[in-house]
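Try this one yourself first.
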């Protein structure tokens, strides 16, 4: 798996290298990055950062001072480091090749303001995996599970810190349950519709650590019926921190 391709993120001149025959980021990663809000000087932790797409975008779309990406797969973490260097962002992004479960020990408990995660969508019991090992690890909970990811996120977040996660609607009950059990109180739930004529298949959830119980439900339609992107989605994709 050596063939790399160079893609334009169409955001602030950012570029990203991806394995042509490995796991490549999807629009869900871009959507998640666009939901993140933080204050100037905040540190954001990107749990399971993959090739670094969300980490890169967060430097353009938020006023954060630092992004720490954690990625278990050695080859993928090394590619993320190359992408950071490609964009000259070594002073803002630090990539760690480690297990998400170790995040509280590495970073310290209650040490950061924001955590974000685009996790594997499929459970380890979700059936036969025909993909390459790299793709399988990115898509299936082989080395981490949803509950463990959320536990680590809660542990590293300060009181009032924010957790952002995107997932498939068929696992919404699990996500909300685990977040609530770990003191990450759901505040905004965005249902994501590929088209208005189709059912929502993905959702983005924003939680506050030890926040008050109140949930705002929103929706985002990504494409018009003719296949063009909706104005709402365009506005989200093109939003830059100013």
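Now uncover the answer:
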């Amino acid at each position: 798996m050596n063939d790399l391709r160079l893609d334009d993120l169409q955001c602030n001149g950012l570029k990203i290298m991806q394995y042509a025959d490995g796991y490549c980021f999807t629009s869900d990663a871009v959507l998640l990055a666009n939901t993140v809000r933080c204050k100037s000087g905040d540190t954001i932790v990107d749990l399971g950062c993959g090739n670094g797409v969300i980490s890169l975008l967060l430097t353009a779309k938020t006023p954060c001072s630092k992004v720490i990406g954690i990625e278990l797969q050695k080859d993928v973490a090394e590619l993320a480091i190359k992408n950071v260097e490609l964009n000259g962002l070594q002073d803002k992004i630090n990539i760690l090749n480690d297990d998400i479960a170790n995040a509280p020990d590495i970073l310290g408990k209650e040490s950061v303001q924001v955590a974000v995660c685009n996790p594997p969508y499929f459970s380890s019991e979700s059936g036969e995996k025909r993909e390459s090992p790299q793709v399988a690890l990115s898509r299936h909970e082989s080395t981490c599970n949803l509950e463990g990811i959320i536990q680590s996120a809660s542990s590293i977040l300060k009181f009032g810190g924010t957790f952002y996660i995107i997932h498939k609607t068929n696992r919404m009950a699990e996500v909300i349950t685990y977040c609530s059990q770990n003191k990450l109180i759901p505040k905004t739930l965005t249902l994501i519709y590929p088209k208005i004529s189709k059912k929502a298949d993905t959702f983005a959830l924003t939680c506050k650590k030890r926040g008050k119980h109140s949930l705002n439900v929103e929706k985002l339609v990504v494409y018009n019926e003719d296949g063009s992107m909706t104005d709402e989605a365009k506005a989200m994709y093109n939003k830059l921190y100013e």
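Discussion: Residues 134-142 have pLDDT under 50 and may be disordered. Residues 74-86 form the longest helix (13 residues).
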